[in-house]
Amino acid sequence: MEITRKVQAGTLQSSDLMIFLEPADALVIEIESTVKAQFEHLIRARIEAVLERHGVRAGRVRITDRGALDYAIEARMETALKRAKEA
Amino acid sequence: MVTELTTSGDLRLGQELVEDSGLRFEEGYDNLVGLYEGPELIACGARAGNILKMLALRPQAQGGAVLGELITELVRLGCRAGHDSFFVFTPPQNAPSFQALNFRLLVSHPKAALLEYGQGLQHYLAQKSILVRRGDNGALIANCNPFTLGHRYLIERAAAQVDSLYVFVVREDRSAFPFEARLSLVEAGVGDLGNVIVLDSSHYAISAVTFPAYFLKAGDSPTQIQMEIDLLLFARHLAPFFGVRRRFIGTEPRCGTTHRYSEAMKRTLAPLGIETVQIERKTAGDEPISAYRVREAMARGELAALESLLPATTLEYIHSKEGRQIRRRLAEDQRRH
User: Fold this and answer.
1) Which residues does A contribute to its contact with B (CB < 8 Å)?
2) Is residue B209 exposed (0-12), middle (13-18) or buried (19+ Cβ within 10 Å)?
3) Half-sphere exposure of B19 (CA within 13 A, CB side)
């Protein structure tokens, strides 16, 4: 799928994350996290897995995370992608 | 659940909560949201463009998840309105609460901290990185509303003293001339100066118009604090990135605000290794050339008077269709006052 518009999903609460997607020429993933030093690579891997599953090759993905667990990252990402392709 | 406060009852409670928290309730916001516990409003906050303000929490709502809930809702509404990143100005002791929510501290001042949510500054700098030139560089920040022969003189004089001169045009659209027009008139007006780089300030020039003073105490000077925060933001983030060691400003002996600004500039920038250089304004008919003078003449329809104040490129714009519309608006504004 393609990211065709600017969308947002998630919250700023503890154990959650907020995701912003917008169209871009290449795939860019930017992660801010209160546990960035320890877990950035794991958050990135999880985001990439969801993008891969949906065949997303381009777009700007911005994450602000407050220690979300894997299933929360996946769920927020799925929601954001659904919104990004809604008309 | 956090909801928008819209009814007169909501607004009264919102104002009470803000004032009980030692803050001032400022009109002029896009959204005001709040959280009720039974009949009591326990938290509220507002958004004006990309600025979050008047965040107030009753003691029972502090230290938990409520601040995050408020900001989630304000960010959601702000994104829908087209904003990417958000600022908060707050007393310095509150900065850690925002940092815990992934806000980045941009400026710390004894009276106020400025934080940003959403990596806007990194993006702005990344976008401008192709414009970075090595050397002993200077900067000039101006609204150029519109670009005059005075600006041209200032830029020429400043450019002669440095390797590269960055001219930041203030992006904020609260001026008679729209941003895109102001920027392109500066570009057209200095195109022949090889070491001048014209760029937009994005949100990183804090103007007095949007600076929220809601959290300042009686006796604090909002104007002075706004100027100092603006200067610190420049000195800490823009100047090092562009290799700027000198900041230029035109003198205007008759304008009190400009004088205070240049004083604040010397005081604030010197300790951070940036020299303030003042340049005497160019005059026409014994008066300094200023954009204000241009707008006054436009409002009065004295187009012949503009010839000695403006370069050909700006004159051409003023005679264009867009320029006619601006003239009409200026004239209407003047009639109303």
Assistant:
1) 6, 8, 11-14, 18, 20, 30, 32-34, 62, 64-66
2) exposed
3) 9
pLDDT in tens, B47-63: 999 999 999 999 999 98
Residue B59 is encoded by which pair of tokens?
Answer: 């003691």
pLDDT averaged over chain B?
Answer: 93
Q: Torsion over CA of A39, A44, A45 and A48, rounded to 10 degrees?
A: 170
Instruction: Report the domain count for chain B.
Output: 2
Full set of structural domains in chain A with CATH: 7-85 (3.30.230.10)
Which of A57, A42, A54, A45 minimizes the C-alpha distance to A78?
A54
Rounded (10°) CA dihedral B253, B259, B262, B268: 150
Evaluate whether B111 touches B91 at the Cβ level (below 8 Å).
Answer: yes
pLDDT classification of B254: cutoffs 50, 70, 90: low
Candidates B212, B180, B223, B200; CA nearest to B30 is B212
The H or E element containing residue A62 is: strand A59-65
Q: Domain check: are B54 and B155 in the same one?
A: no
Q: Show residues of chain B in contact with A13, CB under 8 Å.
A: 65, 68-69, 72
Q: Going by C-beta distance under 8 Å and a sequence separation of 6 or more, which residues neighbour residue A1?
A: A54, A55, A56, A81, A84, A85
Q: Are B311 and B185 in contact (CB under 8 A)?
A: no
In a mutational test of the B interface, the residue from A16, A18, A28, A66 whose CB has the highest number of chain B CBs within 10 Å is A18
pLDDT single digits (tens) B258-308: 788 888 999 999 999 999 999 999 999 888 999 999 999 999 999 999 999
The number of residues in chain B equals 337
- B91 and B176 in a single domain? The answer is no
> What is the distance between the alpha carbons of residues B235 and B269, in angstroms, rounded to a whole number?
7
Alpha helices by DSSP H, listed for A1-87, are 36-53, 70-85
Please state, in angstroms and rounded to a whole number, the distance separating the CA atoms of residues A47 and A59: 13
